[in-house]
Fold:
Amino acid sequence: MTQMLPRGDWRARSAWVADAVGVVLLAYLLWRVFFGVDESFDGLGGAVGIAGITSASLGRRTLRTALDMPIVLYLALVVLSTAVNAGRLPPLLNVTVWQPALQLGILMAFFYGAVSLLRTPARLGLLTVALVVAISVIGVEAAYDYLTLSVAWRRIGHYPSLAQWSGYPQLGMLFAVALPLPLAAVMYGRRRPVIVGSLVVAAAFLLDLLAVNSRVTYVAAGATYLALALLEIVKFRRFRLLGIAVITVLCVAVYIQIDTAMGGSFKYRWQTRLYLQYIAASGPEPGISTGFGRFVTWRHAAGLIRDSPWLGVGPAKYFAAVQRKYVDSWQGEDIHAHNTFLHVAAETGIPSALVLLTMWALLFKRLASAVARSQTGMLTIGFAGALIAFFVCSWSDHFTAYGLAPRNRIAFLSWTLLAAAVAALRASRAVARV
Structure:
């Protein structure tokens, strides 16, 4: 991952050392994100950022990215909202007033450091393999819990082997994010063993995903698969993913017909499950039994946005504001808005949410234009698919809300994916210039 220590030039030697230290720290951070018990990543993430930025500065490599403007604006708006709302409402328990702004600054330093450290296709490839292996191990643990626990525990998303990931929404997001990584290899693979092996890994992630009782996970996986299939057709004039989807649908249809003819209950069980998750949940009085009643929660968030449209109620103060206006006692579903962009708008204002959406739109536009028939193109589309899945999940959950157990590990995972996507963009441009 790093070249031999250069001789002579002190800047080159120092850059090499900083680079090597940063790569080791990044690997350790990711291991802790996936398998560590505690959530204290800020110090380690800050060290990764310092090492990567130092390496780039000493090595005379640019730190500028296509996302600089929205990133700086977003941080500035969060700081301004924190200052304006400092004394109006209390933040969540154990969260100081300036802690969210400080942690956002650490995440952004980590982002720039990680972009520097992940600058080569070889490192991006190793990161892809590491993500696939780590999430596969988590998938095995989740499958073990699913098969050994009772139906009642399954329904509430209880995974004792994966307590660090809290529950089914987080695990569902994780499997949805992982699915595009092997699918990219299916799209680009030229050798049959590579294609078949990647399909097996993707099928395993899909089975893990289907076992998780999360509506948005199914939507995110479907939207990501559709986006990759369309990209494959438009860019490469290939139909692998479309063909796989058609064959899968036909096989499932045949199985349902055989199961129904033999008196099985597969069709009935899935019809009931889909009804409860998508139709009953949209009724006039959605509640805990239909997925926390997201429509009610979104109306609460919209009310807060109407009251404080420009700078919101302040970071980490969403629940305090909702509790003051809408609820009399603790309601688990009201700890966040169950929508990242509504939550951001409620806490730090509509301009912050628009800046965040602009950052995502700009990133997806650059990723779509950088897709090419090369190793870096495969890496680019893999990370693009992972970010599409995370983006879709973010419309029904806010995984980094204060008060949620795994918020910090998901924050560092998402910014790692952003950094990898930006690094893949840079690598693609470098390959195109050669």
